[in-house]
Write a structure and sequence with these properties.
886 residues; alpha+beta; eight-stranded parallel beta sheet; seven-stranded mixed beta sheet; 20 helices; 47 strands; 28% strand
């Protein structure tokens, strides 16, 4: 029988590290070298680490700094573990200084004080030496030095040193920890393999770091207790419930013990370990502090997802139309390249969280230089690691990216590659550059082999060198990930083209085709998606709307809610981003739908590669940030889906403390709501009965957007015509105009593939052949010379006369969206209760189940259209009903 009392501390005496707070609750890792090394300076009891600085786990808390002529550096030892090398300066005193990053400085009230709280470091030297030690902490100013033990080092043998922390500190956040070593005649080179702070406890636990690459291997949990005592060790999940326990006896000599944990019997993710023992009969139970540990998921061949294929406008999974919902994941661009910050745990935690949200795709913005740091050098090149390290970057970067793709599949997430930056800026911080070098007129040290320091210019987009860099990197990555379904595809040519050399239709077309070709040559089934010019949101060029470059699967524009085809407000110039300060009512009413309208008849899949709350302060300056963020996220998710697109990816800076963290809960809430909608598949956009035709220059094009189509888009929303198609006259002729031989050198023109019940044509600037084509196809026509002058009444009358059945009872303020598994009602304008009368295509009897789980309707589509559905929505909000067939 297990003594339950050993594992359940009294409510009033739950163990907490002294003054630990949030700072000391972070993860702990001590390597075996530290555990097994002789300990010098222990005051009694056992040392239990509460925060480990070295070895670093990903981002960590800071780094080492030069001090007094000594410049320490991080290196990998012969076992591949990270250590600090402190050089031989020839002096009799050397300081090791740990510096907290500004945003990671622990508050004074979360820093442990006093002799029972200690710093621990494991140090070795190539020569024998006797070292004096002392420790100081800086918080505004340096504390008084705390003497440490005298350490006798034998050559090559590590010793763990424990030094008490100061009992008091100057006011202010913690900036530095400084350990001073002194010796006569000099301090030799030193290697530090562990640096942590912790506390003296009666029973201690030292879990080994779980190996992300051998996650099924047993994990050792070591510890120390009263010699000979019986110890119970337990693991608790994130919900606080016990998931496993072990009983072990501490050694009679030194109290050491160890248990072997089988990761397959434990849940992956964060766990809490605790131990308890009763030293002898009649004595009080002693307990360890709670020790966090992270278990990586066990990734197997089953974690590799099946490949997505394409048929016409749809992406297919197992032969069925598939759509996805996700985010941009920016850590590889803005974090993981930096030394010591390539964190497998952070990546694994992020993926697990996003999987729980229902996310099925992540676009990963990347710097091409981290994959090709010099021409022809890739991650499998012998010189790759050395080049990366020479720029003071993390040589494990690609190893982590590889792991990320594998782990993503474990959570049902597919990855999209986006070349967000190129090696053109030698001062770019995240590839080894430093802006101070630029200010001082020094050459930049970042990866920038497409930059010419003699001319001070970088290779132009579309130039031979610039394009070849992408071609070669795409070829290598396509070969590396060949057949891997965890990788959804590549974007091409790169993020948001917007220069003179890459934005013309033919220039973009040629560039995109050139960068896609090596991908499909290496991996013929790999999907590729075109990134339009005009900062990614052009919807007017032929090559991004309907006549795609060769080998391109689909298109991935960037449409932000605040940057659509509606007028800017009078106050725009006073805003930080004036191009986002657009008419609010018009934006929520029809902007996103209108921006997507030119792609409504596209023969290829389309997804929105960036959206989100960006620009909220300019778009909705008088609204609370959280309210504006929530509204913007929801509107974009709704309208992307309503447009028949295959996916939506929100843009934000992953875990950024000012941009992302304050609103991460809003993203989670929205994504949990809409994930089932996208997972059920996209709206069937190709069953449209109505076609709008127009020359896109009927109204001047502005900001890369088609403004001529806006009146047609509004009419389609007002009359609930979705799905509906829009074509330019060029697209219509290119799609439906056929010239076929009817005799020797005789050609007859005919229409093909135009199965619409009605067509509405704006005649301004129109190619007259478009009208002839539609008449030849015997499609009823409504010709107008100004789309903006066409009223809903006029259009409704024409459509009914043409045999189109309309929903004339649902108010225009409501937008009705039918997907294969859900009905969405979005309030475009107005407030409060209303009645909707959706005309669904669902066969037989079904139920509409609300988000609260209650059944809102039972019956047939005909009954629903007759009886209607009561809706009570605030402005710009959505009701989601699951269609449950019977």
């Amino acid at each position: 029988m297990i003594d339950v009392a050993l594992l359940t501390p009294p409510r009033s005496s739950h163990p907490r590290p002294l003054r630990a707070g949030r700072f000391l609750a972070a993860s702990i890792t001590l390597f075996a070298t530290a555990l097994l090394a002789p300990v010098t300076g222990a005051a009694g009891g056992f040392y239990s680490p509460t925060k480990t600085f070295v070895p670093r786990d990903g981002q960590g808390e800071g780094t080492v700094s030069a001090y007094g002529g000594a410049t320490p550096r991080f290196e990998k030892n012969s076992q591949g573990k990270e250590v600090i090398e402190l050089p031989d300066t020839g002096k009799n005193e050397v300081s090791l200084v740990w510096t907290f990053w500004n945003h990671k400085r622990p508050p004074a009230d979360q820093w442990p004080l006093g002799p029972k709280n200690r710093a621990s470091l494991t140090v070795s030297s190539p020569t024998a030496v006797k070292l004096n030690t002392e420790l100081l902490v800086r918080s505004g100013d340096w504390s008084a030095p705390v003497p440490g033990p005298i350490v006798s080092l034998s050559a090559g043998r590590p010793v763990t040193v424990e030094i008490p922390l100061p009992s008091s500190l100057p006011p202010g956040a913690i900036e530095n920890i400084r350990v001073v070593f002194s010796a006569v005649p000099k301090v030799p080179a030193l290697t530090l393999s562990e640096l942590s702070i912790g506390e003296e406890v009666a029973i201690a636990l030292y879990p080994a770091k779980h190996d992300a690459y051998r996650p099924a291997a047993p994990m050792a949990i070591s510890g120390r207790a009263t010699p000979g005592a019986s110890v119970l060790v337990e693991a608790r999940g994130r919900d606080g419930k016990q998931v496993k326990d072990w009983r072990v006896n501490a050694a009679s000599s030194d109290g050491r013990f160890q248990v072997q944990a089988d990761p397959a019997s434990l849940p992956s993710g964060p766990l809490t370990l605790r131990a308890a023992s009763r030293p002898s009969s009649g004595q009080d139970i002693v307990r360890s502090s709670d020790v966090p540990v992270f278990l990586y998921p066990i990734i197997t061949d089953k974690s590799r997802l099946p490949s997505i294929t394409r048929e016409g406008r749809n992406l297919l999974l197992d032969g069925k139309p598939w759509s996805f919902l996700g985010l941009n994941y920016t850590r590889f661009l803005l974090e993981f390249s930096l030394p010591g910050r390539a964190s497998h745990q952070t990546a694994a935690e992020d993926l697990a969280k996003y999987g729980e949200w229902g996310i099925t795709a992540l676009r990963v913005p990347l710097h091409l230089g981290m994959f090709q740091p010099r021409p022809g050098v890739f991650p499998d090149s012998p010189e790759y690691a050395g080049i990366i390290k020479s720029h003071n970057l993390d040589a494990d970067f690609f190893k982590l990216f590889n792991y990320f793709v594998a782990a993503a599949g474990h959570h049902g997430i597919r990855v999209i590659i986006d070349w967000h930056e190129m090696p053109t800026d030698p001062y770019r911080y995240f590839v080894g550059g430093n802006l101070n070098e630029k200010k001082e007129g020094k050459p930049g040290s970042g990866i920038a082999w497409l930059y010419d320091p003699k001319t001070g210019k970088a290779a132009e987009p579309g130039s031979v060198r610039h394009t070849q860099a992408i071609v070669d990197t795409n070829r290598w990555l396509a070969r590396h990930f060949k057949g891997n379904g965890n990788l959804l595809g590549f974007e091409a040519p790169y993020n948001e083209p917007h220069s003179v050399s890459d934005s013309a239709d033919m220039a973009w077309r040629r560039l995109t085709a050139d960068t896609v070709l090596p991908i499909v040559t290496e991996d013929p089934s790999r999907l590729t998606f075109g990134m339009p010019p005009a900062w990614g949101h052009s919807n007017v060029l032929t090559s991004v709307t309907w006549l795609l470059p060769d080998h391109l699967t689909g298109v991935a524009p960037h449409h932000y809610l605040g940057n659509g085809p509606v007028a800017v407000r009078p106050d725009a110039k006073s805003r930080k981003e004036p191009w986002l300060a657009r008419d609010v009512a018009a934006t929520f009413d029809h902007s996103m739908f209108a921006a997507a309208f030119p792609n409504s008849a596209a023969p290829a899949p389309i997804f929105n590669g960036e959206s989100g709350e960006h620009g909220y302060s300019s778009f909705l300056p008088d609204m609370d940030r959280r309210e504006s963020t929530s509204l913007m996220i929801e509107a974009q998710l709704v309208q992307t889906y309503a447009s028949g697109w295959t996916g939506s990816l929100g843009w934000t800076l992953t875990d950024n403390p000012t941009v992302y963290r304050p609103v991460v809960d809003l993203y989670e809430k929205a994504y949990r709501r809409f994930a089932p909608v996208y997972a059920a598949g996209p709206l069937d956009q190709m069953r449209s009965e109505i076609l709008f035709v127009q020359n896109p220059a009927a109204v001047p094009i502005a900001n890369g957007l088609n403004h001529a189509c806006v009146p047609f888009a509004r009419l389609a929303l007002d009359l609930h015509l979705s799905p509906v198609h829009y074509m330019t006259d060029d697209q219509l002729l290119g799609t439906g105009h056929v010239q076929m031989a009817v005799g020797l050198e005789q050609v007859e023109e005919a229409a093909a593939g135009l199965a619409y019940k009605a067509a509405v044509v704006d005649t301004r600037n129109l190619d007259a052949r478009a009208i002839d084509l539609l008449r030849g196809a015997k499609i009823p026509l409504l010709l107008v010379d100004d789309a903006a002058a066409l009223t809903t009444t006029q259009l409704a009358t024409f459509l009914k006369e043409s045999g189109v059945t309309l929903d004339e009872r649902t108010p225009s303020e409501l937008q009705v969206i039918e997907g294969p598994g859900h009905l969405l009602i979005y309030r475009r304008s107005g407030e409060g209760a209303a009645q909707a009368f959706p005309r669904l295509n669902t066969k037989g009897s079904f139920q509409l189940v609300g988000e609260d789980g209650n059944v809102a309707f039972t019956g047939t589509a005909a009954a629903l259209a007759q009886q209607g559905l009561s809706i009570d929505l605030p402005k710009w909000r959505t009701a989601i009903f699951r269609i449950r067939t019977q």
